[in-house]
Known about the structure:
This protein folds into two domains: 6-124, Response regulator (Rossmann fold, 3-Layer(aba) Sandwich), CATH 3.40.50; 145-214, Arc Repressor Mutant, subunit A (Orthogonal Bundle), CATH 1.10.10. The protein contains ten helices and seven strands. 50% of the residues lie in helices and 14% in strands.
Amino acid sequence: MSPALIRVLIAEDHAVVREGTRQILASDSGIEVVGEAEDGQRALELAAALKPDVLVLDLRLPKVTGIEVARRIQTQAPETRILVLSAYDDDDYVFAAMEAGAAGYLLKTAHGEEVVSAIHSIARGEVVLQSAIASKFLRGHGNARSSGDYEEKLTDREMEILRMAALGLRNKEIADRLSLSQRTVEGHLSHVFTKLNVGSRTEAILHAAARGWLVIPSTM
């Protein structure tokens, strides 16, 4: 039985870039582009209707910004993973996107095969950052708090679940491996978010990586 296609929605206001991204993704037999949005409002509407596996998202969208789209998607359709594809690597953009729940951040200078690879990785539940973006994010958050402040506050079980999340496992998969209920896993992750003062599993993983507690499985 062949694996299911990764269903992708593209949100990009520049038609040429949007069409180019669609052509790049169409070259991969494991990806299906199910929709395209020219603004943030349309992206939210299509995400709700199509329920894509991955949303390829530009940040500077008309009507609703990419950051706000990411925030709403995380609330309304948390199973949709978000890959930011942006022309900007400013700290404010990077930090805001990852804190809004994006699972990956690539610059538009990335090669087509890097975008395709990132989509496959993100669909598996991994966090994907270009090396320059990863260094920027991890350096910024590594300096934000002293190392060890929070590791001591996490229980062994919370660290175990966080490490499994960093490997790309979904909550149900973690629950099955640890013989726990999914609600229990969600409760542990909620405690992790509170202790680390973060709002998403992506940000929790990046905070932990910044302190050397675990390694992000896929950077570029």
